[in-house]
Structures are given as C-alpha cells and as structure tokens.
Amino acid sequence: MSLTDRAIEQIRELIRTGALPPGSKLPPEPELAAQLGLSRNLAREAVKALAVARVLEVRRGDGTYVTSLQPSLLLEGLGGAVELLQGDTVALLDLMEVRRLLEPVATSLAATRITDEQLAEVKRHLDAMRAARDDVEQLNAHDAAFHRAVVAATGNETLLTLLEGISGRTLRARIWRGLVDDQASGRTLAEHEAIFEALSSRDAVLTHAAALMHVNHTEQWLRDHLRNADSLEAGPQVAPVDG
Known about the structure:
single chain; elongated; disordered C terminus
C-alpha cells in the first residue's frame, strides 16, 4: 500500500467510525495532516482522491465536507465505466451475466413490496413502450424507466443504483435498435407485459420467472449479435487449395 493509499484509508476510517459523519466539515488541511500524522501533501492527495470518489465534496472558499454517502452518489461512476466498456465484447457479456443474476431477484422482491401507485407507474411506461414500438429512442427511454420503476419498488437504493449502472444507456439503445431492425421488438414488449402481469398478481415466483426469461432472451440476442459482428469483421474465410 502506497503512502497515499494509507492516507486515504485513514480518512475513510474516520468516516466509517463516525468521527466524520455525513455532512461534516473536515478540519483545515494543516490540522487534518497533524491529526493523522501525515505530511500536508499526502493529506491533500488523499482528499483529492476521495473527492473524485464522491466521498468528499470540496466547496471552493468554504472547505471540504463529507457527502451524504448515499449509494446513488457513491456508485454514480459505475454507469460511466460501463459506457467505456461498450467496445469490449467480453466485458459486455460479463455485464449481461451480472444483470441476469441480479435483475430477476430484484424484480421478484419488488413483487412483494410494490404499491398500487408504483404499479401504475410501471404500467404507464409499458403503455408508452407499446405506443413507441418503432421509435428506438423512446423505446429505450421508457424501457429504462420501466425497469427503474420496478427495482425502485424494492426500496433498496443500492440495488437500484447497481442495476442502473450495469444496464448502460448505450448498450440498451444498441439492443433496442437491433431488436427493431430484426422485427423482434414485439416479443420483447410481450416479455415486459408478462413482467407487469406477474407484478400485478404480487406473485414473487412468477415475477422472477418472467424477468429471468426477459433477461435471458436479451442476453442471447446480444451474444448472437456480437458473434455475427465478429464474423463480418473477420471477413470471408478462404479454404486452402490443394496443390
């Protein structure tokens, strides 16, 4: 562990133990450095790193504060990282695998907790998807909102942030564009309908099955799409000629 990493860990420990609770202001740099037994340069570097991680917020002319430490804030960078992985086939498939592991469980949990108002919101986005079945941009927006509303019904903000992060706006748009071109959007809309109907019945097992079916089909489409793209990129294979 480098000296900077150790300095970061010391500040994290103050936050973990409650010595620096959410919303609190850090001591001035010289005082913080002395308190932690660090040089001012190390203290400064540690604060910068934690600010990048959204753990600390530097307010110019005011000081440095511990943020709210909400999952939605701390995990905010996940979505940006996923967007950077769009050209990495292995990474995309890994992300879909993670989604397959998490989303059906989250959807199942939502079935046991969703309110009538939350169910009505899911229905609004489903109706909007059907109305925009040939408009990739609108389909993508309401698809994301549909799943967000479902997972939000779990009341688990960390789960919501993780699933939103790994879905990826660019990847979702890419999938919808392909589904529309392949005339497979109708089937995918029907899968969303099945998820909604299962949620309406508050049946956790049925909801899990509907969500798993949907994610599996999406993952399989992506695998086929990536495989075809690789084949096209490789070009025609010429068989060797016997002499």
